[in-house]
Write a structure and sequence with these properties.
alpha+beta; four-stranded mixed β-sheet
């Protein structure tokens, strides 16, 4: 009987330490999974329109804007992080009230403006659906 008691006592002493370790690993694993899910959701939200923006570039769509223009900022925010794939021409000359020469040549007067191929620029904030209709690029 004493041998059996010793085994039980060792299991209790060793088992309680193992139980704590198992709980730590379990909670750590859950934390890692939650962090991974959060990062995946963040990435998807911010890069949802990457392919759409790349398609706009392939279709020769170009946005003309000003860094300080609230409507231009609104248009850029529609794309999230994917905006870096959109061909963009900055028309503000920093430290001046001048418009960049390439914007003058394109005939841009109001911002934002979109140019599709060789068509004249279309002024105003365009919805992603309107951009999709104009270029044939599919939205996600």
């Amino acid at each position: 009987m004493s041998e059996e008691r010793r085994k039980r006592q060792q299991e209790r002493q060793g088992g309680s330490g193992d139980g704590k370790t198992k709980k730590i690993f379990l909670y750590g694993g859950i934390l890692v999974l939650l962090a991974g899910a959060y990062l995946a959701a963040w990435y998807h939200k911010n890069h949802k329109y990457d392919a759409f923006a790349q398609c706009l570039a392939a279709k020769q769509a170009k946005m003309y804007g000003l860094y300080w223009c609230p409507h231009c900022i609104e248009q850029k925010e529609m794309f999230g992080e994917a905006f870096h794939n959109v061909p963009y021409v900055e028309c503000a000359v920093k430290g001046s009230s001048e418009i960049a020469p390439q914007c003058k040549i394109a005939g841009v007067k109001l911002f934002p403006s979109w140019q599709f191929g060789m068509d004249p620029p279309k002024e105003g904030v365009l919805s992603l659906e309107a951009l999709s209709d104009k270029t044939g690029c599919r939205l996600p």
